[in-house]
Every structure is written in structure tokens, then in C-alpha cells.
Amino acid sequence: MRKYAFLLIPLLFVLFCQRGKSDEDIIRDLLENSFFASEAVMGGIDDETTTPRRFSLLLSDTLPEEIKFARKIDRPIEREWNINVIGDSAYAIGDADSITGGFYLINELGLWEKSIYDQAHREVVFKKIDGRWRFYAITPIEFWTKDKKDYITIEKIEITASPSGNSFEIDDPLEFFKKEELPWFEPADTVHVKVTVKVVGGDSCWAFLHHGRGYRKGVGKHHRDPFYRTSVEDSIYVFERDWYISDDIEKYEKPVVRHGAVDVIAGSTLYGDTTYSYIAHAYALPYIIKHVGEELPGDTEE
User: Fold this and answer.
1) Residue ranges per domain, the chain?
2) Which of 30, 99, 156, 203 would give a disulfide with 171, using CB separation of 3.0 to 4.6 Å?
3) Contacts of 275 (CB under 8 A, 6+ apart)
4) Which of 70, 69, 77, 16 is nearest to 41 (CA)?
5) 276 φ, ψ (degrees, to nearest 5)
6) What are phi and psi of 140, to 5 degrees?
7) How far apart are CA 285 and CA 41, in angstroms?
8) Which residues contact 300 (CB under 8 A, 6 or more apart)?
9) pTM of this prediction?
10) What does R_g of the chain's alpha carbons equal in angstroms?
11) Could you give the CA distance from residue 47 to residue 70 in angstroms, rounded to a whole number?
12) Torsions phi, psi of 259, nearest 5?
């Protein structure tokens, strides 16, 4: 028994720390440091640079070559959590009402900087298990441009993976996903994503896929790739593309959490000058990379 005692030290340390804090304080700590809901992932569509860049792949059904852009979101992102503890359950509603930054764009008309004024919303559920608060379920983060929430509507995101065969669908930003219900992929999977979008006012749009971001800076590698537009009918746009899970991990060693987002930007934002403001709408959600039969990752580094 003695030789296994050292394995209990991290658990006893965490339990001791939790015991000295209120339930609300513990949950706030988890919200700041969790693999699934940390402050860093509130910037799920942030490029963290002011240098517009080309895309890794340009075909006839992607954006024209002259379109390059970068987003840089001001940090830290201030978010307000309303936490309600009821017995062994806790509900956290998070809002970021003033996400600011710059959208740096090169198009055929020139070089432009457009101001970002976004908002975001997310909800998280925690459960107390064996005397310890644990992450239980989460909604996507929904990002939208202030006062323009209904300008672009992401109607559905459909995800299928091969060879694992896993599939997922998101059509409601307020839908809760338990940890075991979150999208998960094998390290060798190719993931196909299909997005259906509605735009108002006669504008167009383009969709982009973000993937590979970790829960804090220095973890994972952020990728941003354009979708391919596969159909347009009236105000309904459909975009599709694949991504390789192997791009999100340098070397697979154990189950990990990464963060992805579907990011839709108004055509007037991309093709216009500063007469046309920045307008975007995005959903972001954590996903898990693991092999069949492996346990789900924990909530934080321990």
C-alpha cells in the first residue's frame, strides 16, 4: 500500500484546496482553468496577429486569392459568470458583452482595419462527485457582432469522421453536451464538416473552420481554413471541408481536449472597404482526441 501512497498526493492537495473555498469560488477557478471552458477559449476565433495572411489552400470554390485577413481580439476578455449552486449541481451562465479588437483585411480595394465589437454567451454545468466539483456539461460558445445577431444565422453544423465513423450535429447554441457527448475523434480520423448558413439583407458570406486550439496559450496549435462553398439558394449558403485530426497533435500520447469553431463572416466585410463594418457569427465547442476504450480526459491539469 505504501508504494501507492504517492498517487494520492495530487488528489489530497486538490481536495484540501477545494475545502478551503466556497463552492462558487471553486467553480470560478474551474471556469478559468478547465480544459473545456477557460478564458483562453473565449477567443476561439482569434488569430492573435494583426498580419493578414493567405490560406493554406486556394481552389476555385474558396475565397479569391486577393482576400487575406487576420483577427486580433483584445485580451483579457472580460466575461461575467452568473453561478447558481443547487445542492450537488451548479449552473454557470457566462456572458462577454464587450469583445473588442481589430479585423485586418487585404482585398482588391486595398488594406483595411475594421473594428470588432462582439458579444459571446456560454453555459456550463458542474456536478459534485465524491465531494469534488467536476465539469459535467457545456453549450457551444456563441459569438456574434453586437446589434447584428440575426444578420447571419448558423442553421446547422454536421460533422462526420472516418474511419472511426463518429458523427455529431449542432443546430442550437443553447444545447448542452455532457462530457461523454462532446465530439470525439480518433488520432487518425479525417473529419468532414458541413455548415448551413442563412444571411439577411441580400448580403453574402463565407465560412471558416478553426481547430487545434488548446485551453491555454502554448497548448495545441491554432489552424484557420476556409470552407468550400458547395451551394447557394436564395439566402441559404452551404459550405463543406475536411480536416485531419493529426494536424491538431504533434504526437499522440494520451486523450486531449482541443477547441474548434465554425466562423461565418459577412461578404460585405470581406469584399468591402471600411464603409462596410465587421459582421460575423460563430459557434465554438471543445472536442476530444482519443482512442476507443480510453478514458475521457480530466477537467484540468493535476
Assistant:
1) 2-289
2) 156
3) none
4) 77
5) -105, 120
6) -60, 160
7) 9
8) 30, 33, 34, 35
9) 0.89
10) 20
11) 6
12) -125, 135
Q: Kindly tell me the burial class for residue 147, based on how many C-beta atoms sit within 10 Å of its own C-beta (0-12, 13-18, 19 or more).
A: exposed
Q: Rounded to 5 degrees, what angle do the CA atoms 161, 174, 284 make?
A: 50
- Distance of alpha carbon 93 from the chain centroid: 17
C-alpha 19/C-alpha 26 separation (Å) is 9
Contact (Cβ atoms closer than 8 angstroms) between residue 23 and residue 84 = no
Residue 251, judged by CB atoms within 10 A of its CB (0-12, 13-18, 19+), counts as: exposed
The x, y and z cell numbers of residue 44, run together, are 476561439
Q: How far apart are CA 105 and CA 75, in angstroms?
A: 20
- pLDDT, one tens digit per residue, over 198-218 is 999 899 999 999 999 887 777
- The values of phi and psi at residue 22, to 5°, are -75, 160
Locate cell 467536476: which residue?
134
Q: What one-letter code names the amino acid at 167?
A: S
Nearest to 296 by CA among 205, 183, 191, 212: 183
Residue 218 has what DSSP assignment? T
Neighbours of 225 (CB within 10 A): 17
Q: Output phi, psi for 36, to 5 deg.
A: -100, -25
CA 124 vs CA 2, 106, 136: distances in Å: 39, 38, 8
C-alpha cell at 18: 477545494
Helices (H) and strands (E) counted in the chain, each on its own, are 3, 17
pLDDT digits (tens, 9 = 90+) for 154-166: 999 999 999 999 9
Bridge partner residues of 159 (DSSP):
168, 193
